[in-house]
Structure formats: C-alpha cells, structure tokens
From TrEMBL:
Phylogenetic lineage: Eukaryota, Metazoa, Chordata, Craniata, Vertebrata
Descriptive protein name: HAT C-terminal dimerisation domain-containing protein
The keyword Nucleus appears for this protein: yes
Main location: nucleus
A Pfam family this chain is assigned to: Dimer_Tnp_hAT
Cellular compartments annotated: Nucleus
C-alpha cells in the first residue's frame, strides 16, 4: 500500500525577498532616495506630519499615483533616518560653531503633554559671510531632563551640552527667565566676581580715550570681555514691571472679570456665540493667560474694538445683563490699553531671533519711561497703575537711567577694536523667546494621538525642525 506523502511547501530563498519587484526602483536608486528624503524633510519635519503616515494605505496609494515605481518606506526605516539626519545636522552645526569666537545662548525648561521635562538651549553668534556679517541662530539641544529641576542638575546638563559643541570657552552671555533655579544654576556655573566700582565719568573728556587701544590695553579689555555673564530675559523683566503695575489696579478687577466671562462664553456657549457673531461677524475675544500679561492686553483690545452699545445689546439679548459694562468701566478699559500698548510693542520688538535685539533694550526702556511722562496729564482712572509702572521701570532698569557724561568722537577716528566688541555683543538675544519658540514646535509635534512618542525621537524631530538647512 502506497502511503501518500504530503510535502511541505518549499521555502522561498532569501534572495527572493532581497530582490526589488520588477518595474520598481531599487532602494539605492536616486529617485527612491529623493522621495524618501522629501517625505522626511518636507512632510515629517517641516509639515510636522506623523511618521505613521508612510504606512497609511491612502498615502501609499497617493505615492503610487505620483510615481508607480516608488517602493514605500516603512515607519521603522523612517525613524532611523530621523536619527541619521539629526546626527548629520549636529555635525554640521559643530563645524559652523568651530569657526566663531563668541556665542551667546538662551536656556529654558519645557514640559510636554506627558509631563516629561526637556532642557532647551539655543545658540546665537555673528558669522562672517564674505564682506557681510550675519546673525545666526540655531538649536543646540532639546534634551530630556529627568528628576528634580535643581540648579546643580540644570548646570550639569547645560555644561554637557556646551561640551558637546565645544563652546564653553566661547560662551559670553546666557539668557534665561527669572526663575530662581535658572538664576542659581548659572551662578553655580559662572560665579560672579565682585570688583571695586570705578567711576570714570569725570575722565571722558580725555581725548586719549578715543584713540584705538594699545596692545597692553587691548589684552586687558579682552580679558574683561571674556568673562561669561548670565542675563535675565528682557521680556520677562518687562512682564514683571507690568505685573507690578497690574497689582495696583484693583479698580479694574470687576471689568476684567466681566471680560474673562464674556471670552469664556464665546468658547463654551453656542447660543451666545451665535448672537455675538450675528452682530460682530467672526470677530472673537481671545482668552487671557495668567502668566502672560500681553494676552490680557490682546483680550482688552479685542473687546474695545467692538461697539459698546452693540455689545451691550448682545449681552442683554443673550440674558447676561450682569456682564454689561458701564460707560466708566468701558473708559477704564480704553485707558488700560493706551497705557500698556507701548509695553506690548517693546515686548514684541525685542523677541526677534534672526535680527539684532540687544541694541533695542536701552531705547525701549527710555521710550517707555518718556511715554509714561508724556501721558501723565491724560490719566483719569488708572493713576495707581501709572505710578506703579513708572516706579517698577526705574527700579528694575536702574542702570539705564543713570546720566553718564559722554564725549563725542571726532570724524575720521577709526576704532577697529570696537568692531570686535560689537560682533560679540550684537549677537546677544534680548529675551529667552528663541528657546520658547522651540517648545512651541515640540507642542505641535507631540499631538495627543502621538503621545507614545519616545523622548529621544521627539528631541530629534524638534532639533531637525529648528535646524533646517
């Protein structure tokens, strides 16, 4: 009796899987590489789309229509390409920084949706490009920061980042917010030396002062300016000034409370929103953020752009009579905007990243003080706010208001040493806004449906996004 022999299906040779399907690009084909790189750079990094898009059947169908020869890349492969791209851009940044003598940095800590901490550091320097000198800004790191945010740990991780890019000896200024742990961290890193105060104002008429420096004097100046310094963020300090002023505006509390409730209704009540939009169109009233005074300014500006009578009619029609503004309250809101508007402009002007901002600090502070002096006779309701703003401005920026006797340079006198100082100083950011913008990118990348992303991948995506060539 013949036994039937059941044969197992023959296993395909591994070479079959290594071969590219007929009619499709090989993995090393220039067009295959170009499409893969475009997906990574243009879609995943610049458009901040999720890595999983490459495994989406609709996206794959789209690619097959665009180029039927293209072989779809896997998510795992694309993730490894993110790591490679980040490594490549770090190497390029290290080369760029090796050619500069002075840098300044901004530093801050951010929490993502999963409450993971990240230490962000941006670097700023002046770079010569032929005959031109350009301000360059880059992200050094947005690295995972675990454990308590003690000054010593911040200092330790910051020094590690500086060591990776070999900039510790080139570092001039460190700009951070006014948080106590940040201030202490950089006091630990770079202790401030106490020196005897020298008053040179009486000697500024000496014509020898305006000659270029001797070699000995130049060495003394170089040693002095080589000292690293920690600077407080100008925007945060200005926020403290406005905060001091708003503490003295209890008279505004009822009006601001009504305004906050109206803004909340626009975001929570469809009935009120329909009545409001029927009168004012798609105009909105943004919510205020407690830690950002300029968000309160934007909120007040938005409401006073509405007609007072029409807004009152909308509130009455929607049954919110308790939120009606009296004429006096409305005038207080308008006066608040008039007083704080220059502070908002100064804040926005000094938060640039690709332009020199350090030179705008003194003019901004002096202009704010002058504006307050000129407005003094016009203040009717908020005199407490007015006085507190002026007092806080003078207190927090005391050195700017010292009247120093200045000499005038004669035409034609060249000061080449000044150029070296300018290149160093003009690269200093006025505020920590550059590093805060980095965290905005991180928040956009880590959407709720991407919460399982590892901190390493998030760090690399943010780095590549902010250091796009």
């Amino acid at each position: 009796m013949n036994k039937s022999v059941t044969r197992e299906p023959q296993q395909s040779p591994i070479s079959q899987f290594m071969e590219t399907r007929v009619g499709q690009y090989s993995m090393n084909h220039p067009q295959q590489k170009a499409i893969n790189n475009a997906i990574l750079s243009d879609l995943v990094i610049d458009c901040q789309l999720p890595l999983s898009i490459v495994e989406n059947k609709n996206f794959r169908h789209f690619l097959s229509v665009v180029d039927s020869k293209y072989s779809p890349v896997t998510r795992r492969k694309l993730t490894s390409k993110v790591e490679n791209l980040a490594t490549e851009r770090r190497s390029k940044l290290k080369t760029q920084l090796s050619n500069t003598d002075h840098v300044s940095v901004t530093v801050d800590i951010w929490f993502d949706r999963k409450m993971r901490g990240f230490l962000g550091v941006t670097v700023h320097c002046m770079e010569k490009d032929g005959e031109r000198i350009q301000l360059k800004s880059n992200l050094l790191a947005c690295d995972s920061f675990k454990g308590p945010h003690m000054a010593e740990r911040i200092c330790e991780q910051f020094e590690a980042i500086c060591g990776e890019y070999s900039i510790k000896d080139k570092l001039d200024y460190i700009i951070s917010d006014n948080a106590s742990n940040m201030r202490k961290a950089f006091t630990v890193c770079f202790p401030i030396e106490q020196e005897d105060e020298v008053h040179d104002a009486d000697h500024l008429d000496d014509p020898e002062l305006w000659n270029d420096l001797t070699l000995e004097d130049q060495q003394t100046v170089d040693a002095a300016i080589a000292k690293k310094q920690s600077l407080q963020c100008f925007a945060h300090t200005l926020q403290l000034v406005v905060g001091d002023g708003l503490k003295e505006t209890k008279v505004m509390t009822p009006s601001l409370s009504k305004l906050s409730k109206i803004s909340s209704l626009l975001h929570t009540s469809t009935t009120f929103k329909e009545v409001f939009e029927a009168e004012f169109g798609e105009r909105g009233i943004p919510a205020a953020v407690n830690t950002r005074w300029n968000s309160t300014l934007r909120q007040v500006k938005a409401v006073i752009q509405c007609d007072h009578r029409k807004l009152s009619h909308v509130l009455e029609k929607a049954g919110h009579n308790k939120l009606l503004f009296t004429v006096r309250e409305w005038n207080k809101l308008k006066e608040l905007v008039d007083i704080l508007k220059p502070f908002g402009k100064a804040t926005d002007m000094t938060q640039g990243e690709k332009i020199v901002t350090i030179s705008s600090v003194v003019p901004s502070v002096l202009s704010l003080n002058q504006n307050l002096e000129q407005r003094k006779p016009q203040v009717h309701f908020l005199s407490g706010l007015f006085r507190s703003l002026q007092a806080s401005l003078n207190k927090r920026f005391l050195g700017i208001f010292i009247n120093v006797k200045m000499a005038r340079t004669q035409d034609g006198i060249a000061l080449p040493s000044l150029s070296r100082v300018a290149i160093r100083v003009l690269a200093v950011p006025t505020s920590s806004a550059p590093v805060e913008r980095i965290f905005s990118h991180g928040g956009i990348i880590l959407q709720p449906h991407r919460a399982q992303m590892t901190d390493r991948l998030l760090s690399n995506l943010v780095f590549c996004k902010c250091n796009a060539s």
